[in-house]
Design goal:
The protein is mostly helical and 155 residues long. Helix content is 69%, strand content 8%.
Length: 155
């Protein structure tokens, strides 16, 4: 990076470093998730239901960033594994909620602490102050990029 002084070059370098760092940290997460017989989407759904409680299927798709068709497929897979159950809303029968089964709750409770430690180890070379700085800078970058994307009419 020495000698790269133009803002354009620094922006490209930032993008490359950010992408590589993201891929490296996510590789730790994916390997751990797969060791439990899940894919990242299934883990995300279980994580959401474990930490937030029952959710409408449509909202799950929005929160874990998958399409409504894909959430049906993922819910089917988790239901076959007896980790998830669907329940009709008492207020609106058109709305279907997903919730963890007792087995699903116990399963996630047993794997989450290990997963958390995998993520802790993946970023442990940053001290607390560096982690706080990274969080602040990445949040600022993400919000700015999102705002500019919307302003460009791309959404």
């Amino acid at each position: 990076m020495a000698g790269k002084t133009s803002n354009d070059e620094l922006s490209l370098d930032l993008f490359i470093v950010l992408a590589r760092a993201y891929n490296s940290v996510v590789a730790h997460s994916i390997r751990d998730i797969q060791s439990h017989g899940l894919n990242s989407t299934e883990f995300g759904v279980l994580d959401l239901l474990y930490h937030k409680g029952p959710q409408p299927l449509q909202k799950i798709g929005e929160k874990v960033l998958i399409s409504s068709g894909n959430i049906t497929y993922v819910a089917d897979k988790l239901q076959k594994k007896n980790l998830l159950v669907r329940k009709a809303s008492p207020d609106d029968r058109r709305v279907i909620f997903a919730d963890l089964t007792d087995e699903g709750r116990a399963f996630f409770q047993s794997i989450f602490p290990q997963h958390q430690q995998v993520l802790v180890r993946a970023v442990e070379d940053l001290d607390s102050e560096e982690k706080m700085q990274a969080i602040q800078l990445l949040r600022k970058l993400g919000l700015s990029a999102e705002r500019k994307f919307k302003e460009s009419g791309a959404i």
